[in-house]
Amino acid sequence: MVTWGPEGAFFAMSEYGDVVYRLGDPAAWDIYKETVEEWKAERGFLWSELAFIALDPTTNDQFVAIRNDGTWAGSIDDVNEDALEAFALNYFAKAKSSRHRPNASTSSQPGGGGGGGGQTPNGTREPPPPPSPAAEKKPDAVLHALYTQWSTETATLFAAASASSAGAKPKAPRKLQVRSLSSSSETSSSSSSSPPLASSSNSLPGKSQLLARFPYLPPAVTTCSLTTCTILKAQDASIHACQHDLERLLRASGLYSYEWLRQERLRWHPDRFGRLCVEEWRETGKKLAGEMFKLMSVLIEDLKHNTQGV
Length: 310
What we know:
single chain; 310 residues; four-stranded antiparallel sheet
């Protein structure tokens, strides 16, 4: 497996899982470098888990990398984001169907009937699917309904704003990342944050559908009464929610985990959120998104420390 891009970036892996790579000019391949370093830092990660990687040979910092467990990461301009996501999800679907298809050359090998995962094209052993996430407790039905409504409305607003801004924005690579929660087949459904596109309620017919308001958390979940949190939420230019409110809502998704939170946090990055806002509201929108981003970062750190302490 070999791929290379401009400015000296390349990645190569042998059939035995031996890896050599170069991150290229840091200014040119920033997101690629970040992804490689994030994956290397994961506990128990092996490069033999990589199923596919391709660097764009003509454009800096555009790439896609897919792992056997359904995790994928990539970077591409806003206009082609849907195409990259479709490629990744179709790759998962194709890989799954091929695993269930009889293969005379592999089924006849000695010991081929044992459990523990299938054989990948590069000769490494595919690990068995990880256990189902967040199975310890079923979320409250009322809270789950609130989360579903809020997340759907938020995703619809984001999708409409992204479609509205796509034609006017210059192409610039940005990071995309989806983490598998139990299997590659679940990735296409549970990680989806893009329901069918509907007209955004923050715009009038015929007007731009860029964001002009913030998707605040439902009032029914912003009930934390700690003194410091109450003071924070009372401020005018805030999202009127604290980390405890946000954790309560996100846990109701039934998907709450370290990797899932990292994926959710991506869309609240102030710069990314700001590109979806109308110009006159952009600075306010970026400030509010920055608050959400910081709260999610706190939750991520909490989960990280709790996991390391186990």
